[in-house]
Specification:
By secondary structure, the protein is an alpha+beta fold. It contains 21 helices and 23 strands. The structure holds adenosine-5'-triphosphate and magnesium ion (MG).
Length: 569
């Protein structure tokens, strides 16, 4: 075995960089957090090449003095904590004193800063770990960090980077998190010289509307709860704002974006009565608590926390959300209202001749050409639609109740599956392309997964810096909300990761797509349409349950009905 020897500083920093800055977005996050820690009110980000070529962040914060400049780039040097005691009550986003050193070890970094009240700025440069002399520089205020050529000296790491567009997408997400956390600070983001984002200081609802969409904010309730040193504020999406994927979930603890199991569980419990199955809630929540009550020194990327009293935090978050989300009776969605006015039907039947009365009542509902002698199909013939949700049909055995939304979803899903098994989902060119606003990450996904998307029946083109147009859509879904469908598919493809995942998670993806096709509740169907649906159900495999496993239809036999009415036969 070779002798043990200490590693050179530069190598130590490079190793640390592997954990702290695994991609441009992580470097951007660290630099942005430094600006916020310095009290910046305006932060301007310039990126080139997805952040790989250039990340430049200019802030108007407190700045760094001449003597401190080289220290800012030294490892384990920080102005934010000094003692072990400080570590137990962290009030800043940074505290490890290693972010800039790590970034500088794997890039060419320039740090220019003007300490508030000083006549001019100073600058230091680091090239692959070598710090230059401190030189005077021009800067009106604050600090500007410029990172060129990330990972130029660590080719192994560079190889792991994805395309420029994907890295840009991740950088954009890093900015979104920071921008949501601090809507009192103004931000701009430029990529290759073009402005991608521009936020002035504003209220949370306005910032969230820009970042997550107005529909989502409109379908959410404000949260404002306080108890025993804990406070929860923000926006919680109502069930209408729920999504097929967990991609609008932002939880901040003392201003820091975190992923935490305790919090995630509390949220899930609070929503468990409201959302069924696969739907994911949308939320932007801020938990504030005494810094001593939470340990943020858990992981180098600082996205994990540990609560001193996690039970109390769990209970508090869960109850605060439950209270805010519990709808009053008046607000309960119509679709869930109980079916209580069936008397009209009852009174129009003469009990003595039920069948004749039935037929008189349904009249034209029975297809005229129906050969009465022939055996009725298994699911029978449609009689009526109940509350825009259920189809009532009569078959040999009695009454069939069909959840038309769930049934249609299953039919479409099986159709898409058959298509895909045969090669590709059948496409239909759109006469007028559907246009959707798209995040950089969406555009990247669309470009990188063109083939997969086409197999799924979606032909997309980039029609602007923040815009995609849909030229062709799956034939079975072409009548639906194409932009919404496209957005969901892009999100899933991105999360599952392209073609390998397409086969592995095909059913999930197709289920998401089918959701968009399905007849929405409350749409009136003609009797002919209802019968067509029943016939398709009979021909579709697994049509007895919807894509989420709920039943699609239910049989009430005449015997069941007789029992219901205490009618001895
Ligand atoms: N934009 C900035 N404005 C003012 N001071 C800054 C800025 N960026 C960095 N500094 C100074 O440089 C020091 C080192 O920054 P660095 O990000 O490396 O460490 P940190 O923020 O202290 O801890 P962490 O590694 O957790 O981020 C900071 O403690 C701070 O004093
Ligand atoms: Mg820092």
């Amino acid at each position: 075995m070779p002798a043990i020897r200490p590693l050179p500083d530069q190598l130590i920093n490079q190793i640390a960089a592997g954990e702290v800055v695994d991609r441009p977005a992580a470097a951007l996050k660290e630099i942005l957090e430094n600006s916020l820690d310095a009290g910046a009110r305006q932060i301007d980000v310039d990126l080139a090449g997805g952040g790989i070529k250039l990340i430049r962040v200019a802030d108007d914060g407190d700045g760094i003095g001449r003597e401190d400049l080289p220290l800012a780039l030294a490892r384990h040097a920080t102005s934010k904590i000094a003692t072990a005691g400080d570590l137990e009550a962290i009030t800043t986003l940074g505290f490890r004193g290693e972010a800039l050193a790590s970034i500088a070890a794997v890039s060419r970094l320039t740090l220019t800063s003007r300490l508030r009240g000083k006549e001019h700025a100073w600058r230091v440069e680091v090239d692959g770990g070598q710090i230059s002399a401190t030189l005077p520089a021009a800067l009106s205020d604050g600090t500007t960090v410029t990172v060129h050529e990330l990972y130029f000296n660590t080719p192994a790491r560079r190889k792991f980077l994805r395309t420029e567009a994907t890295e840009l997408g991740h950088c954009d997400e890093a900015l979104r998190r920071v921008a949501l956390a601090r809507c009192d600070v103004a931000f701009t983001l430029k990529h290759n010289g073009r402005v991608n984002r521009h936020f002035r200081a504003q209220a949370l609802a306005d910032r969230a509307a820009l970042l997550l969409g107005e529909e989502l904010v409109a379908a959410s309730v404000p949260i404002e709860a306080r108890s025993g040193g804990l406070s929860l504020t923000g926006l919680a999406g109502l069930p209408q704002a729920a999504k097929p994927r967990a991609d609008a979930q932002y939880f901040f603890v003392n201003g820091r974006f975190v992923r935490d199991r305790v919090l995630a569980h509390a949220v899930r419990e609070a929503y468990s009565q409201l959302l069924h199955g696969e739907r994911q809630p949308a939320y932007v929540l801020f938990l504030e608590l005494e810094p001593r009550a939470v340990d943020v020194n858990v992981h180098p990327a600082k996205t994990e926390v540990r609560f001193r009293d996690s039970r109390a935090v769990h209970q508090f978050v869960k109850h605060a959300l439950e209270r805010a989300l519990s709808p009053t009776a008046a607000e309960a969605p119509v679709a869930y209202a109980s079916v209580s006015h069936g008397n009209a039907i009852q009174s129009s039947f003469g009990l003595a001749q039920p069948v004749a009365a039935y037929q008189a009542f349904i009249g034209s509902a029975m297809p005229a050409a129906l050969p009465q002698a022939e055996k009725a199909p298994p699911l029978g013939y449609a009689l009526a639609q109940l509350h825009g949700v259920y189809i009532l049909a009569q078959n040999e055995a009695g009454l069939v109740l069909v959840d038309m939304h769930a049934a249609h979803e299953r039919i479409v899903m099986e159709k898409l599956k058959r298509n895909l098994d045969a090669g590709a989902v059948q496409r239909q060119a759109l006469l007028v392309p559907a246009v959707l606003s798209a995040e950089a990450l969406d555009i990247a996904t669309a470009e990188e997964n063109r083939e997969v998307l086409e197999r799924l029946g979606l032909e997309l083109a980039v029609s602007g810096p923040n815009e995609l147009s849909v030229r062709a859509a799956p034939a079975a879904l072409a009548a639906g909300d194409i932009p919404a469908l496209t957005r969901d598919v892009l999100r899933e493809v991105r999360e599952f990761g392209g073609s390998e995942a397409l086969s592995a998670r095909q059913n999930e993806l197709l289920a998401t797509m089918a959701c968009h096709a399905a007849v929405r509740a409350n749409r009136m169907l003609s009797v002919a349409e209802m019968n067509a649906l029943l016939r398709e159900m009979e021909e579709t495999e697994r049509s007895g349950s919807c894509n989420h496993g709920r039943p699609t239809w239910y049989q009430l036999t005449l015997a069941d009905l007789d029992k219901l009415f205490l009618r001895g036969r």
